[in-house]
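User: I want to check something. If I give you two sequences, will you return the structure for each one separately, not as a complex?

Assistant: Yes, each is folded on its own. Here is the first sequence with its structure:
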Amino acid sequence: MLGNGVIGILSETCNKWERRTPLTPSHCARLLHSGGGGGTATGVARIIVQPSTKRIYHDSQYEDVGCQISDDLSQCGLVVGVKQPQLEMILPDRAYAFFSHTHKVQKENMPLLDKILNERVSLYDYELIVGDHGKRLLAFGKYAGRAGLIDFLHGLGQRYLSLGYSTPFLSLGASYMYPSLAAAKAAVISIGEEIATHGLPPGICPLVFIFTGSGNVSLGAQEIFKLLPHTFVEPSQLPELFGVGRDPNQPARTSKRVFQVYGSVITCQDMVEHRDATKVFDKADYYAHPEHYNPIFHEKVAPYASVIVNCMYWEERFPRLLSTKQIQDLMRKGCPLVGVSDITCDIGGSIEFVNQTTSIDSPFFRYDPLNDSYHHDMDGNGVICSAVDILPTEFAKEASQHFGDILSQFVGLLASATDTTNLPAHLRRACIAHGGALTSLYEYIPRMRSSDSDFSVSPRLFFYRSWQVSLSSLSDQSRRYLAVVIVGAAAGSCRSVICQVGRSVHSVISQLACLALFSSVQRQWSLATADHLLIAPRLCIIASVTGTHPAEASGTPPPRVNLQALLWLECTLHLDATLLQLHLDTVLLALALVFGCARTYPGFFLYAKFEKIYKGIFLKIPELTVLVYIPDLTGRFKAKTVGGTMPIRRAVHWPVGADDRVVLDQIIDSLTSIANPNETSGNQEKNKMSLKVGKVQESDIKKGHNSERKTAVLILGAGRVCQPAAELLASSGRFSSHQGYKACLEDDSEEQDDVQVIVGSLYLKDAEEIIEGIPNATAIQLDVMDHENLFKYVSQVEVVISLLPASCHIIVANACIELKKHLVTASYVDESMSMLNEKAKSAGVTILGEMGLDPGIDHMMAMKMINEARVRKGIIRSFTSYCGGLPSPAAANNPLAYKFSWSPAGAIRSGRNPATYRSHGETLHIDGDSLYDSAVRLRIPDLPAFALECLPNRNSLVYGELYGIGHEASTIFRGTLRYEGFGEIMATLARIGFFDTEAHPILKDGKKPTFRTFLLELLKSEDVDGPLIAEKDITERIVTLGHCKEQGTAVKAAKTIIFLGFHEDGEIPASCQSAFDVTCLRMEERLAYSSTEQDMVLLHHEVEVDFPDGLSENHSATLLEFGRTKNGKMTTAMALTVGIPAGIGALLLLENKIKTRGVLRPIEPEIYEPALDRLEAYGFKLTEKIQ
């Protein structure tokens, strides 16, 4: 069965709340239909899904994309799930992938492992699938943090109510109560707005949230916290919030309402201090000797905490964050702590009194420290505690989508694999068992099971986390030699080497007679004489080398070495070089002074590539990845190779920071000189070790709010559209009405840095007005025709947004390509821009055009509907799209029921463009002069109050080709929306001559006739000097001249003419040379929005789909957005719906979510899926319906 390409998806049975799935219907569709070869391109032939009535995706959704629904998975070679299945569900001679936890050797999971081995199952554990840089590829951490904090805020409102305080938190639901993560975030933003407007009761302020840890779980929780109006403070600043000195026993509440909450992220340095008061905190020493440190969290931090959000990893050898006795003492002193959200669900762990798990439907218990009692209610004394162990399933849809996005990239390899040898390294390492036996990396499990120790391997030890040692703790008297062996990623990971540090390091080493480690395909060999060290093959070892090689002593030849890299570090001057030659084919000095792990120390990954010839054997090491951390060392050390001795530069007070390039360069220079001591020129010898640097992707670096690196975006153009885009980009880390944009729906990727926005305009004053009140924003004067200045500013940013006239985009695009910067525009991609496609690809640049409303959001909504129908093998029979910028009903207070938020000239010209569309198989062409007459009445069923009409919008058939439906849809129509009656009035005005662009004789030679005179001229009235004409006179004249056939239309046109003031005696400015000029002037004056009036954007798609089973469906999608008022200033809906998508496009490029290069439109899933999610989180109302 193995390798037959048939995948089974389990029905989750471990918990009633488990609604996640490893692969969503969309993932299944891509796996089954990619390349048009029935999935052969992906290695997946069929997918069988066990039926489930609680899975977040219905069975029918899987059926629609070609999956089979069956309880019987016996035909499947690979079975995937999220959590471990029931034992009786495991079939023999198959491959299974799920979170098994069996590698941790916990007793409760051993029956599962025994079943796996007995049934000769190949077991792949998601938790062990690790990328090249030590980061787990499949994880739900951020979703746990997001759901955990939302759930706690939900309970916090109830707890405060029981204490007599009404707070905005009371209106927040639990995470699972919302249909999406975006909706949950919108709810948090809503309560944040209430806090910012009305404040919090003085009796609970300052409200302080303490976050432990800085991994994905903590980042997810902080992501939700940042949706509230907030300020982050350093732990040392906490006493100042309470208006007290440094005495933690004197917390004091404020007497005024506070309009924000406070957060503080703590690290181990804030939790402990050295017992020796003369010594400063040293992280390396702390991890090696936690017994030398005393806890201080209960004294320095906890007295000021309202909420503790626990997201950190903890082991028993470290001091607790908060013990039962400490919380009891704190509460007697009046500590303001209200609750603990233990998202790690570490029962009896770092927070001792959290002694039980809770559930999604009953997420809290109350601990009363004064009585040392536990209660399952919100009333009474004490603190509320939450410890739910299945939090990510509360956002089952997003969590499944995120998980499947990664899993679907390699699940086909697992489905088609008959053994593990041909799998990529990251999948081989994740295989715990194969063919009834444990794989070599996990042969430690039986030894640990038979051991008396109750130690279980932590999943956090999987990569680069095996040991910590402080050289300063080793005296010359206590050891002779220290050897450190590091095996590279291809040979295994550092998961299972645990040096128990109950005793000092040197005492452990002194008890080791000798130790060595070798690895081969057939056999692993190791020897340790102390029970303080647990060893797994191909891993990191700390050892003392004191005598003869044990294999030589026994007369047994040692196995052939298959190590990827070897590091020997000498701490004295007595290393016998012969010890380094004990039947080793290759000895490499890789790095010196390397202590730490990716989870523990800030710093940089150092990648070393080697080529070495020794004893005639050529060994090429593809890549060794290690984390460099330079502690405060006080001694001088030397390292030896077989060929001689290299001095190691003394490394004193070398802090390694992610942005400290000078210090980093010193480290690299030092390590390079170690590796290449004889290098005196640019010519490299064959035995060279070359170094390059990459930033650490995940560490315990405390991301302080003042230390974040700023990326930059240049916005060209300072019109109305600019401000929403600038506010969106610059609003990272602060609260606003649209705070949720950045945090919304982000995958488990790195948190986006603050964005520095540069707004460039031909006139500096315009740019300065745009950025007023926007943090992280700068105004500059910039003329894009000044190439020197343009290149200067483009070179300083990562992304450029051009909101200039379309004719200027090509100049900006060429500059971006030359400087390798991405570009976003909201304009149509014309031929000149399309011609830059290959040039942009070659430069590695993305030019994202049509990222506005129309074009822009219309593309995204359309392609989402079309692609969803295609996944179900649907055929598009009809596509109609309507879009328009209109006054809100309250502002449609003129005869035309229309106002301009942009130039009337542009709007009038666009209404005179010819149009082409297809209707029921017939292609129709509309002349520009007849466009207004072609308007037809339109009603949208879900918006019956709007009396609308639509006019054909240019060439609709182009979109048939763009969307890939031109060959199948018999109707393709795109129309412009207006209120009913607009077309007939504008057509009448056009026939009268109001839109004529030729110079009019009455306006020549600097003449300044009155508007009344001009009107009478257009109406061909002979009584120029007669009395003021009225609506009735104008109506009769229009009918007489034959400009319209219906009296009612003539009346509407006359009312419009009167409203625009053409009957008045004011003089026409000399700048007006044509009737078109005069009309635009009058419309700009009379049809403008007041400062308090709202405009409105309405976008509506309708798609008719036929399916193979004969079913037909009508799909619709609607966007309705109104202008928004903030701080007394109105931002138009048109500006929002053009500026926000452009800003989102820039963010997606900054985050590298858009990986395709060249000239693009937002018609691909990698663009429109995250963009639509963020638009919804921003507050745009996007609704979809199927009938």
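And separately, the second sequence with its own structure:
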Amino acid sequence: MSQRQRADSEGSLGPDDEVMPYSDDETDDELDPPSSEEEAAEPGDGPPGAPQPAVASDLGWSVKANDRPYHQLPEFQRKVFLCIKKSKYCGNAIKTYKYNAFTFIPLNLFEQFKRAANLYFLALLILQIIPEITTLPWYTTLVPLVLVLSITAIKDLVDDLARHRMDKEINNRRTEVLLDGGFQESKWMNLQVGDVVRLKKNDHVPVGQRLDDDTNNEKLQEENQLAHYDAFIDCEEPNNRLDKFTGTMRWSGQSYPVDLDHMLLRGCRIRNTDHCHGLVIFAGSDTKIMRNGGKTRFKRTGIDILMNYMVYSIFALLILVSLGLAIGHGFWYEHVGSLAWYLKDGKDQDSVYRGFLSFWGYIIVLNTMVPISLYVSVEVIRLGQSKFINWDLQMYYGEKDTPAKARTTTLNEQLGQIEYIFSDKTGTLTQNIMAFKKCNIGGKNYGDPTTAKGVSLDKGRPVDFSWNTHADPTFEFMDHSLVACIRSQTDHETLEFFKLLSLCHTVMVEHKDGQLVYQAASPDEGALVTAARNFGFVFLNRTQDTITIQEMDHEATYEMLALLDFNSDRKRMSIILKFPDGRIRLYCKGADTVIYERLSPNSPHKETTQTSLDRFANETLRTLCLCYKDLSQAEWDAWARKLQVASVATRDRDDALDLVYEQIENNFLLIGATAIEDKLQDGVPETIANLAKADIKIWVLTGDKKETAENIGYACQLLTDTMKIHYGEDLRVRQALRRNVAPSFGHKKKAPEPFFTEPGKNALIITGGWLNEILYEKKKKRRRFRLRRLGRRPLPESPADGQPINDFEKEMRQVDFVDMACECEAVICCRVTPKQKANVVSLVKKYKKAVTLSIGDGANDVNMIKTADIGVGISGQEGMQAVMSSDYAFAQFKYLQRLLLVHGRWSYIRMCKFLRYFFFKNFAFTLVHFWFSFFNGFSAQVAYEDWFITLYNVCYSSLPVLLVGLMDQDVNDKLSLKFPKLYLPGQQGALFNFKKFFISLFHGIFTSLIIFFIPYGAFLQTMGQDGEAPSDYQSFAVVTASSLIITVNLQCCAASPSTSASCAASNALRQPYLWLTIILTVGISLLPVICLQFLSKTIWPSVGDKVQRNRKKYEMEAEEEKRAPTFQRGGRSRRSAYAFSHSRGYADLIASGRSIRRRPTNAGSTNAGSTNAGPTNAGPTNAGPTNAGPQDSIREAENI
């Protein structure tokens, strides 16, 4: 397929597919239109580092080191309740539990009675205490209500005790705090704002804290010096922003800027240093991690919502039936009861008042229509289904000892109704374990199986790296010619290629047991440095200013002048080094799209390298370009001065640095390109194919480049060569048609015309830039608003400039996107931010009312996981944050098909059968009272014994219904996976809906009719064997109850013994005539149901019925041969680019020296270069301004 022509994004005709959308890091208050003063001071309006106008400080948080009384001063007090005041600085103890010993009973009861059903039965219990109304003893309602409340309370208590244990464990952790002139062990809960703490390697950070500024390290080496440390810090008040912090430290008459790079966040872990010191800035509930611990969005299943509506319908039906029977009683009393002398009760009450009392009496008698035990039974079933998922050994991943985990018990049946799956790519579909596979050096490709002399082989053997004592034994490479070229040391470009890989990075190195252990900011970078290590260029050590490597047979130390770190906007990283011979060289590696536009016109190998990049991309490899540039001393000196000005800018420092970086990153000479493989997880193609057969559509949402994502789509069979690929531009066609039709809000909406009228399968690939145009993001809106006010761009007069005219136009863009995407067999959204991932899920939920599932493995997937109806976390290489935010978790993507097609389908079928049976048995039980009313003058007399009414739902019919909900299976797990079409009824909601509800209602009406009238007719004129008439009320009640129990339990195909507790039952059941009546009643009740089921399965069989009919045949068949992945590479160029999911590196840590052990000049100090650990959010003391960025903080917090 030919490359589509894209519109120029600068002209707003279309977005640039290569541009990563902005990060979603703004709060709503930042999106207000800027004032004129703010516009005048926008970054970029003046040169970098130019003086900025003074702005009023909004910093409202003051911290003084080593001075606890300072934070208790009156000006820091806030009113808590009435005249009670408390310091605004929180203690460090955390509390996540809900109850204590005194509040558990009242609070738990208060929460339970907020549920309408419980409140209804409490009101019913109160009515039963009123003598003139009640027709049933109070215990018939009290016993079930107490049972329901007790079970729920026990469940809540167990959950809260677990939170108590977790809080106690965290609060009682130990750390060292500076008190009385020396460091003492203290519990986390006793830390306070302003304390100086000492953290050791692998410690968790107990608070939010700031590390000491590097310029003052020499002054803070001893404890007695730290005891006199009295710095003031003015900073922003506590908030939930993990990616931003602003403050100023004042000490010894000087001021120092404090930003996020100086912060350690609570819950992180100290790395790359033996110990460090920090100052507590935020504690307890003020820390950023606790501020981000807001309430998780409560998710409810569609069956839950439907069930509530049905309960409301039942309640309405109860009111109507009770009202009709009350009217009947008033009419009966007026014409019959008041005229019969033997019915007079001596009360002076007219028929209307008696009807009024009868209404409330029937509300009590028929109360079992509203099932009190329904919700508890549902929770028990869901708990059991969750345990089955946890116990499933076929979803257990032995390599990491990771079982599947149902982290919620409320969503199991919704797993059987999924229509759309939204999946991350890296680490979810792929392993996120990178391997250096191929490269291009000086225009020549390496990596295919080749001999040392360059002869290509069909199948080779891995290179033997035994000549290299530092080689990584797990590294494999098939091209022997590259090793021979390096060992000969004759090709300058090849040596320069691997020298760049060993020097241009932010990897940390540790020496453990004589081995080198690399710690990289991303798997890509670790793979590249490991490759250089195996080819003879071994990264050995680094200090704040130097890097030492072994170049084949000798060591060399390079002075590091500057490190220009990677980020998702720059898409490259550079390092400026001074060679031992005095030369100054800039090495750079980055995405091909940014490197090629910065190459010198005289750069060699551009065309051949471009061809190799296309080839590597077609093989789904992640590519990266390498280049360099020599600098003169004068060039370096001039640029270094600009760098110094930009690095101390107090406003928009990052933008200023980026502009300075641009001035030197140009006129590069290309060396070559690398190709890294991120392998698919096992079973991914088969899983996707099987889910597609179940009519589940899979969308891949990734931050990777379009070509990379597209190639992975082909590799995992999400895309095939038979599909027609569409891009974001195709939305323009529908939008143009929309604009030609005036909006008609008042008329009935017409069904949208299909996007694709031609037969065949379609797929959509859309970039984050196009999603910006569709979603009309706030930040983009603010930026354009600002430019218009500055007169740099005219207001749009038509939507041709890319902006919607009104809300209708905006909504139509979204509708067009969803309609087009949902008509496709596969959708890939690439170069998207975490916020856009969540927005895409929201659009499908909003416009398609579909059940969605999101699956991911990293922190950038959390928003998407929380937004979907069901979130699944994969415990992979990127920590546990996705797992902690998910509803279900396991270790491999392939387990998703078992979760949905087996457990999800079973759970849905079981829950639907349970609900249908539950409603049926309650209708059959309750409506007997209705028929009995026509023979007792509508007097609210009950048809059963009191004990039977009390125990019917609790004992007599509880076990069968629970067994249905827990154990029912139509087909086994193997057949469920073999026939994915069995999943379709769940998507269609075919097994439980209002139609099924009314079928259960009429079934219950029919059964109650039989159960009442057959015994009534049998008892009408009967004589027993002993000459006594058995037609007394109690005997009738026992026969009716026995018939009911046997009928409903046989209906469920499970026996439930009914033992009687009444003498009347014993007397009645001794009569053979009554047993015949019971058998006749049960038979007539069940016969129509059995006949209908037989005819249905014979004449109109479902897919499940057909599979069940041939179950033995299918079980005896051999398993289908697993198809090998049919990845067919066409002639299209699908260039892949490395590292758009690559996070910010360790450049700031390295440049500050905080992460590097100093030479033993001062043995007492250690420069803390932590990657986020510790107990608080702390501040300055004995370690340089640590540049542990937000990505590092989040990454480390995931591992806790």
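Because they were folded independently, the notes below concern the second chain alone. The first helix runs from residue 36 to 40. The chain has a mean pLDDT of 77.
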